[in-house]
Design goal:
Structural class: mainly alpha
CATH superfamily of the largest domain: Fumarase/aspartase (Central domain)
Number of strands: 9
Strand order of the largest sheet: 4-6-7
Helix content: 55-70%
Strand content: under 5%
CATH topology of the largest domain: Fumarase C, Chain A, domain 2
Order of helices and strands: EHEHHEHHEEHEEHHHHHHHHEEHHHHHH
């Protein structure tokens, strides 16, 4: 397996996903190890001087005014890790912890933090061994970075705390390191602070969310196309010349997807001509490119911010090439926190529109000839009536999750850290929102597929027919009432793993 190099430049989005989600291994480059060693020499020089230097020979935060004598400095570095590992609540997902570890390693590799090469090498070894420190849901204020979550990672590096091994079994860090042949670290001046003072948790969750949302917005376009087709809507509004009157790039991409997905549909052709009075569909059909496109443009902005963060060295203090060690505010999570909150808004809105399209297919007064709730025998059967309830419940949750976390700073550390980003909280709620959107889109596609089947003998277009066929591997076609929850779960899995997008793309090529 090719290892992801760390230290030759900013990590790519795909590198983060490969390591975090798929278990790819990493390797520190020679350039990174050289830069780390050079910065460490500057720290050692400062540590030997009588003049206090923050994070090297002083306390931390509100305790920065105390000068720490040389014989206590190793204890100082271990104590900051132990005391700051104060998380609480459920365990954070493995992929989030691995992303956080990788991004901290990337910052160490810049040679701006002042750690020793062995410290970076140990973090890389733990990552490659598949050891995942136990990190908890609560503890980070997003400033000075993700202190508590990163402290739990650092705790494992010194052989303390709990971890999960490569097989997912919970064990002690001491035992896991021993079994992997990794020597626990003994921290020296500056290293404890350097391991925990970064925005890596919230950035890792942002990168993973961007990856997921790129795929989900393609799936949302598929759901919209199937709904337009199933409800005998018009595709004339998606014409390129109409879309170009409002030149938002995301809107153009979404409309192009809809045109390709609806191409050669016998259902669409069945109601063209002078006798068709469907000149204007409801907004949830007609305005799909505008909403899905705005979501895409928001996502593009978030990706721009994430790319800048991947090129950053976030620590305080930092070691500059001329040997200066300077305090700074780059650990503040505001840039990431804002876009994490921002993304939760279009996630909620795209889901809200999908739920409205679903509801139209189930309402006999608006579905243009489809049976009530797409039931086999309405009254005896309820069809997908309650599947829409589930959608609505999720959408309600998504609207609550769209409330920003970043506007609610709570001062800490005796007012030294008097304004914080709450970016970790924004990242946690965005992860829940992405999961919710996945479920809403899955239920729309499941519903639209049944509606398309009920339009027989008319056939959907080749692309949407391929999606229906892929869905039918896990979700049966129309018939008497069945246990619906397993069908929803199967549809969610097919959206989440990309199977339905792949099915459409097998006909029309890559979607935008």
């Amino acid at each position: 397996m090719t290892k992801i190099p760390v230290g030759t430049g900013p990590l790519a989005f795909g590198d983060v996903v490969a390591v975090a989600r798929h278990g790819a291994e990493v390797v520190l480059t020679d350039e990174a190890l050289k830069a780390i060693a050079e910065a460490r020499a500057h720290v050692d020089d400062l540590a030997s001087r009588p003049t206090p230097a923050y994070g090297i020979s002083t306390g931390f935060g509100a305790l920065a005014t105390r000068h720490i004598h040389e014989e206590l400095r190793a204890r100082l570095q271990e104590n900051i890790v132990r005391s700051h590992a104060a998380g609480s609540g459920p365990e954070v997902e493995r992929e989030v912890v691995r992303a956080m570890m990788l991004l901290r390693l990337s910052t160490l590799a810049t040679g701006r933090t002042g750690v020793r090469p062995v410290t970076a090498e140990t973090l890389a070894a733990v990552l490659n061994a598949g050891i995942t420190p136990t990190v908890h849901e609560y503890g980070s204020l997003g400033c000075s970075g993700d202190l508590a979550p990163l402290s739990h990672v650092a705790l494992a590096l010194i052989g303390e705390g709990d971890v999960r091994d490569a097989d997912g079994n919970k064990t002690s860090a001491k035992q896991a390191l021993a079994e992997a042949g990794i020597q626990p670290l003994t921290l020296v001046a500056k290293e404890g602070l350097a391991l925990l003072n970064g925005t890596d948790g919230m950035l890792g969750m942002l990168v993973l969310a961007i990856e997921d949302l790129r795929a989900l917005l393609r799936a949302a376009d598929i759901g919209a196309a199937m709904s337009v087709e199933a409800q005998l809507g018009t595709d004339r509004v998606f014409a390129q010349d109409l879309q170009e009157l409002r030149p938002h790039p995301g809107q153009a991409d979404s409309a192009a997807n809809l045109r390709r997905l609806l191409k050669d549909s016998a259902i669409m052709e069945s109601h063209r001509g002078p006798h068709c009075n469907r000149v204007q569909d409801a907004y949830s059909l007609r305005c799909s490119p505008q909403v899905h496109g705005a979501a895409r443009d928001t996502l593009a902005h978030a990706a721009l911010v994430a790319g800048r963060e991947l090129a950053s060295a976030v620590d305080n203090p930092v070691v500059l090439p001329d040997g200066r060690v300077e305090s700074n505010g780059n650990f503040h999570g505001a840039p990431i926190a804002y876009v994490l909150d921002f993304l939760a808004i279009p996630v909620a809105d795209v889901a809200s529109m999908a739920e409205r399209r679903t509801d139209r297919m189930l309402d006999v007064s608006r579905s243009h000839g489809l049976p009530a709730f797409l039931a086999d025998d309405p009254g005896v059967d309820s069809g997908y009536m309650i599947a829409q309830y589930t959608q609505a419940a999720v959408v309600n949750e998504l609207k609550r999750l769209a409330t920003p976390a970043s506007v609610d700073s709570i001062p800490s550390s005796a007012m030294q850290e008097d304004h914080v980003s709450m970016g970790w909280g924004g990242a946690r709620k965005l992860r829940r929102a992405v999961d919710g959107l996945t479920r809403v889109v899955a239920i729309e596609i499941m519903t639209a597929a049944r509606a398309l089947d009920l339009r027989a003998p008319l056939r959907p277009g080749p692309a949407t027919a391929a999606v229906v066929a892929a869905l039918r591997t896990g979700v049966p076609g129309p018939g008497p009432d069945r246990h619906v929850a397993p069908e929803i779960a199967a549809a969610v899995d097919l959206v989440r793993d990309g199977s339905l997008v792949t099915a459409a793309e097998s006909v029309v090529g890559p979607l935008a």
